[in-house]
Amino acid sequence: MTDLPYATLPIPNDWDRRGLPAWAYHSPALFDLERDHVFLNHWQIVGHECDIPDPGDWLSFDLLGERAVIMRGADGVVRAFHNLCRHRGARVVDGVEGNCKGAIVCPFHGWVYNLDGTLRGAARPSTFGEMKREDFGLKPIELSIAHGFLFIRFKPGPQPAVSDLLAPFAVDFDAYRMTELLPVNTPDWTTELPVNWKSVRDVDNEGYHVALAHPALQELYGRTYRDHQLENGLSMSIGWYGDAPGRGWSVRQYVRHSPERTDLPPHLQKAWTYYGIFPSIVFSMTPEGVQFYQDIPLSVGHTRLTGRTYRWANESRETRLARYLAMRIDRATSAEDQQLSIWSNESMKSQSFEGFHLSDLEYGLRRHHDSLRALLPILTVEDTPEESQIPALNAQMACRNHPPA
353 and 241 in one domain? Predict the structure, then answer.
């Protein structure tokens, strides 16, 4: 194993091994608070600049009642807007991605916007009386681009600009040449689970389960796998492979065909690395490719898992084969994690569930819960509160924790 080039937080000798209370996984009132204080005011990843290389190319992103479109303008600049027409609020683009040839045309009444979001003209403008076009452009959304990736935030929030937030990972991301990525032929994937989003994160935020629940990963790198916690809601997990040939077909062939990346620093060679960003973004890197994935809450008991996959230019046939084999391993791992998420989420409604008792190997889960508690102090309440009282109780506790100056 190789030392990492950045400091990670030590696990305390004596720490609170409890998790969030069970009620937090099925409370509609808490979910409403999470919408405003955890998701809409934190950075969400949409894609990479390579996904929208030409003027008029766009990506869409929906989150808890808000709709965004990220588009490259005629001037080459990438911008983010609310995906709603200023006339009646219709979507100005529909779908996951596409291209607007020279202009954005609302499909409802035909209002036309320039690619920079300014209003070119309303259909039958004389019916609107006096109307200044400059007052009716698409509403902008905060956009931050780092290492080629596109992040948006619907509301101002506690996180800094993404480039500053990801500064601890900059050495690794630069080594992976993230700005040079290209999309694969089928770049995005999506699945939905009947679980609260926190149950997905609880599984993904610890490696204690790898040895038993993920036989392919255990065979590939389980002997060396480690989770590391950093400040500001960041985490990093890494496992090194190549010291054993592998028994299963996918692992055995992957170890055989994975490319030698001598251009990478020693700690990234023959490694699978995972970089977590609060609340629910993960970058996953292997020597032959990059993907990100994230959990999008749809309701208190329904979550969408989605992500995009990328490659580097001029990859060899062997590298392409290794990327395919890595995908097979990752697909099996994802299916295993999905089942674990369902089982874990089900347990939260059982009268026999008495809470978590966490291992040192699950300290990342505790850190994630602590980040949530800092935003929503109601989560420190163990006994199930009255649903109708949750917003007021949380506001009172937040005022006590952060009294006005």
Answer: yes
